[in-house]
Amino acid sequence: MFRVLGNTVVRYWQIFLVCWVLALIGISYAAPEWSTVVQNGEFAFMPGDSPSIQGEKLFKRAFPDDLLASSIVIVVRREHGDQGLMPKDLKFIEEKLKPKLEEIAHPEEHQDQDKTQSDQKEDLAPKGDSSEQTKNPSNISRIRTYTDKTIGDLLQSEDNKASLVIVELSTEFLDQSNGKTVESIENLIQHDDEFKKSIEPGLDIALSGIATVGRDMIRAANQSAEATELWTVLLVILLLIIIYRAPILALIPLFTVFVSVKIALSVLAILGGWGIVGLFSGIEVYVTVILYGAGVDYCLFLIARHREELDKECTFKEAISNSIATVGSALAASAGTTMCGIGMMVFAEFGKFQQAGVAMALSLSFVLLASLTLSPALLCLAGRLAYWPQTFSERVAISAGWLTPSSVMARLMQRNWTGSIWDSVSQALLRSPGKIWLSTFLVLFPFALISLACYGNLSYGLLSELPSEDPSVVGTKAVQGHYPAGATGPLTLLFKNPQINFSDAEGRAAIEDLTDDLLKQKDELGIADIRNMTKPFGIGAADEMEKAKDLRGLAKIRAISRIKLIKNYYVSSEPDDEENQNHVTRMDLILEKDPFSHDSMKQLERVKKAVKKSLPPDLRDNSELFYIGATASISDLKNVTDQDQARIDILVLGSVFIILVILLRRPAISAYLIVSVFFSYLVTLGITFAVFWALDPHNFTGLDWKVPMFLFTILIAVGEDYNIYLITRIDEEQKTKGPVDGVISALKNTGGIISSCGIIMAGTFSSLMAGTLVGMQQLGFALAFGVLLDTFIIRPIIVPAYLIMLYRGYFGSWGKYLGAAQFLETKPQPELDSPHVK
């Protein structure tokens, strides 16, 4: 098949070039804009049966007026002085800030006023002409200040030094449209000279809120994607020029992969627009890095074979055809191994993992096809100029055995200086394989222990991903300086009981009993405040019902009206929902911990146990209880991703093991290789924990929760070529040189190759560190270090040392079960580290 393909490409290379260019133009033109087909968020990708998701659905039905979407929080504070906010500061909020925010919320109303006041001209646009605001309507649904009748009192800090202005939005916190709203408010606060003059001296205004965090996350993700792609291209160009020392030849893999990436992303956008595949915002970064890393390998493999064929005195085009015929199956096997490993992520329950597995596995097929057709066509186009200024008299070392793209790519980089290094390593392994294996293991093992000890110490926080100077991070610190840390994301308990009417005395008494019991455990549970129908403004505020009893006349009427508003805020009163009307109530708990911190999840578990134990009989029977809010959502996210991690780890290891057994036909050796891969992963994860803790020990909250999953899957799937290359080369050498000398000979010939191969792969992965998202920086470091560890230590030292001990009979009678039966004599040789070199 590949012989036919090679002849076809060489014969019709012009047609292949035109087809690829037309495909690039046509598919890119047909593809919708990327931002329109990707889904933002984290919690939106959780399974629909997650408890917090079910709770949010009930909340939206029971309290449709209280949008459970997102908000921008404006912090108005006066830090200096003992008096705190002054009356003129509060007047500024109500008379200056709020009207300006209303202008942003309803720009068309203020434009109509300006239009009425200005002279009308006949050349103006007709009345039916839609304005820019019609195309982009505001997503602000409500603005709440300290004067709000329901929650206004809660917006004032206890120290009276800060007041919050809540701008409620109708969109989710990671919606793209939020960016314009946040930017409009930022421009008002920072760049509107007229408004800035109205700010009272000493008054500080900062932006916070989940929507501001979402805007900063999207902006950082876009910047990271652009920086990653730029640095990936620059690093690949640099490494290719160093490898080839032929500028035209270096451009062929680069152009091939560039076209593959653009077409793959466009196809994914089209499939996403049709609803065939799901795409999350940021998935393009993973696709780009994987395709550049694997694609360059494939192209280098093909070009390396082409050089070998030229050295055999074939014609230029014959060499291309022979290269495709020779390496086609190897490329397909390599890509298939990687696609199979990464594709196991499709079995995850968390949507992002599923989508990443599908997108990366599908995209690899494009770079494989391009390396077999576009790269040869480009070679035909360049002709002998491709190798300028080099000549064809320079020969490339040829290795026997089952060849892989990574190995041949690495052979291009092999130089004489590497040979001496691995000669020394080989001699050392011959003298003391046991000591070297043990000492290497002991050096690495502590980091594996760190990984196991810190495995659950992951960060699920959004703010921890962002740079400290981002507006949302600065604003959140401003809020937490005057309010409990949990105020940025209350934990909401929803009680649904068809037998209890929460608007009457019985329902009120049940909630009051629960509240009193929780108050007794307030300090133990880390609860800063409790707000519900009986304590609408918190545990320190007076009872509104008691206050109303002492009032008379108009004041009492106003108080009763306010109590009714408060009741509607905490008890479902939606007339269109008879099932839930008066049968659903909410209780907001303000925790002392940051809702996105790891400790908040432990706190949530303590609260759940306490609530379950403290529920009065009236509330316990026939009740459904849901927990919603940031802490509840990340707790569910952790549970889902923990299960996915265990499931995918087993599937990836199992699938790779099966592939190894099929290719190597030695189950025991294959099992050891799998163990070495897993050990390499643990060490890498442990070192990543240690490095990022050392960089910022005070603020380090753990690795981003996505790092372990993507590190494990990519590191094992992409790095499997190194295992296959080393073992197949050992098999080849053992046929003529014996078991131990065969291992040494293979190591001498492949040690530099495997390690050099890791350099270009690590360079590609390290481009992830170019962005501002901390999670991507951590993943980039972990992948780059993991590849280097795998290629410099695990493959050339840990694996050969074990095989030497195995073939020398160090394991006694167990050796025949461990894969050395055909080499062991009747009496095993038990000596431990022979001083003699064979």
Count of beta strands: 10
Q: Going across the major beta sheet, what is the strand order?
A: 2-3-1-4
Categorize the overall geometry. Answer: elongated
Biggest beta-sheet profile:
4 strands, antiparallel
**What would CATH call the architecture of the largest domain?**
Up-down Bundle
Which percent range describes the beta-strand content? 5-15%
Q: Measured on Cα atoms, how large is the radius of gyration?
A: 33 Å
Number of domains: 4
Structural class: alpha+beta
What is the CATH third-level topology name of the largest domain?
A: Multidrug efflux transporter AcrB transmembrane fold
Query: In CATH, what is the class of the largest domain?
Result: Mainly Alpha
Distance between the termini: 45 Å
Structure commentary:
This protein has helices at residues 2-11, 13-30, 34-37, 51-62, 87-105, 107-117, 132-135, 178-191, 193-198, 210-244, 247-273, 283-311, 316-343, 351-382, 405-413, 416-431, 433-453, 471-480, 505-520, 522-525, 544-549, 553-570, 598-614, 617-620, 630-664, 667-695, 707-718, 720-737, 739-766, 774-807, and strands at residues 70-77, 140-144, 162-169, 204-208, 458-459, 491-496, 527-531, 584-591, 624-628, 703-704. The strands form three sheets. Strands 2-3-1-4 form a four-stranded antiparallel sheet. A four-stranded antiparallel sheet has the order 7-8-6-9. Strands 5-10 form a two-stranded parallel ribbon. It is elongated and about 95 Å long. It has 30 helices and ten strands. The chain is α+β, with helices and mostly antiparallel strands. Residues 133-142 have a biased composition (Polar residues). Residues 106-142 are annotated as: Disordered.
